[in-house]
Amino acid sequence: MPKNEEEVQEDQDDQDDQEDVETEFSEEDKKKNNEPKLTDLPGIGPGIAAKLDAAGIYDLMGLAVMGPSNLAELAGVGNAVARKAIQAARNMMNLGFTDGVEFDKKRKDIRYITTGSDSFNDLLGGKGVESRAITEAYGAFGSGKTQLGLTLAVNAQLPVEAGGANGKSVYIDTEGTFRPDRIRQISEAVGANPEKVLKNILVARAFNSDHQILLIDKVNELIKDGEPIKLVVIDSLTAHFRAEFAGRGQLADRQQRLNRYLHNLMKLAEQHNLAVYVTNQVMSNPAMMFGDPTTAIGGNIVGHASTYRIYLRRGKAGSRVAKLIDSPNLPDNEAQFFVTEAGVRDDG
Ligand code: GTP
Ligand code: MG
After folding, report:
1. Closest Cα to atom 10 of ligand 1
2. pLDDT tens-digit profile of 195-224?
C-alpha cells in the first residue's frame, strides 16, 4: 500500500529522532522517550498512530483498554491485527517494571473484599473484589451496580477472617444515590454496628468531572494523613464525563480524560494496596451487528492483568446475573446472586 504524505513525513521524523537520541536528550527526556510508544506495537505504523491520537488514544494505556473491534474500526485494520496490538500493549504494560520477587511480594499482600455472595466471589476468583485492581460493574439501571457498591463499602470494614480488608471505605457519589439507611441495613445483616460502619465511610458528592478527578488527590491526602482506606467506590465512573462531553466531536476528549483518570485510579490502587470499584452505565448500540448490543460507556477499560469487568443484568425470579468479561486470568463465567435487604447475597 502506498504511504500517504503524512506517513512519509512521520517516518522521516522518526529517523531524525533516532539519530539525535544519544546526544540531544536530557536524562528526563530519555526516560520519557524510552517508554514504549504506540508505534512499538505490531501492526501500528505512524499513520495509524496518528489516527488513534486524533481519537484520543495517545499511549499504550489508551490502546490496552480498548476492545479489538473498536480498535479495528478506529484504526481501519483487521480484527486480528487489532487483537494482536492490544495483547502486545497489555503485555508491555504488565512486564518490565517489577522483578519477580517484588511481584510475588505484591501478590501475597493482596486483600479481598467479599461481595456478600459466594457464587459472585467465585466468579472473581474466590474471595471477592481485589486490591491493586479496578473492578468495573456495568449494566442497565436497576441491575445492582450501586447495591454492590454499598455492600462492598460495608464489607471492606470487616476483619480479614470475615471477608473484609479491615479498613475504611471512600464513596465517591456522582449521582446522589448513596443511602445511609441502606448502609445501616447491610451493616446489621453482617452483625456490625451501623453507626460505626457509617462513620468509616468517607462520602463525597462529585459535582462534575473536574471535581471527580480532584477527589482522587483528596483520597491520597487522606491516606497520607493515616486514614486506613482499603476501598474506593466511584458510582458512577462515567456519568459526568458522558454528560459533559456529549457532542460527537468531543468523544476523543472525553476518552482521553477518562483514560487519564483511570490511570490515576490504578496508581492509587497500586500505591496503597486498595481496591477500586467503579460503576458504569450502558448505552445501546444499534449499529453493532454482532454480539451484545449493549456496550459500556467509555469502552473497555481493562488495561491491567488484575482488573475485573463485570456485566450485571436481571435474571430469573428476581435474581441477578453477573458475567465476567474478558478477564486475562479467569474464565468468562456467570454467577447468580440476589439483591436483598441485607445487600448482595447468594439467596433471595
Ligand atoms: P442505576 O444507578 O440506575 O444505573 O442502577 P443500579 O445498577 O445502580 O441499580 P441499584 O444497584 O440501585 O439497584 C436497584 C435495585 O436493587 C432495586 O430495583 C431493587 O430491586 C434492589 N434493591 C435496592 N434496595 C433494596 C432493598 O432494600 N431490598 C431489596 N430486596 N432489594 C433492593
Ligand atoms: Mg446506581
Report:
1. 144
2. 999 999 999 999 999 999 999 989 999 998
- Cβ–ligand 1 contact at 318 (below 6 Å): no
Instruction: Return contacts of 79-88, CB within 8 angstroms, 24+ apart.
Output: 81/42, 81/43, 82/43, 84/42, 84/43, 85/41, 85/42, 85/43, 85/44, 88/41, 88/42
Same domain, 252 and 320: yes
Domain count, the chain: 2
Q: Which of 93, 118, 134 is the last residue of a domain?
A: 93
Tell whether 23 is covered by a domain. Answer: no
Tell which atom from ligand 1 comes closest to the C-alpha of 149.
11
* pTM exceeds 0.85, yes or no: no
Query: Whole domain around residue 52: which residue ranges?
Result: 38-93
Residues 141 and 177 in one domain: yes
What span, in angstroms and rounded, lies between the C-alpha atoms of 99 and 33?
22
Q: Is the CB of 149 under 6 A from ligand 1?
A: no
Evaluate: CB of 56 within 6 angstroms of ligand 1.
no
Same domain, 73 and 196: no
For atom 3 of ligand 1, which residue has the closest CA? Answer: 141
Helix (H, G, I), strand (E, B) or coil at 85: helix
Q: Which ligand is nearest to the CA of 145?
A: 1
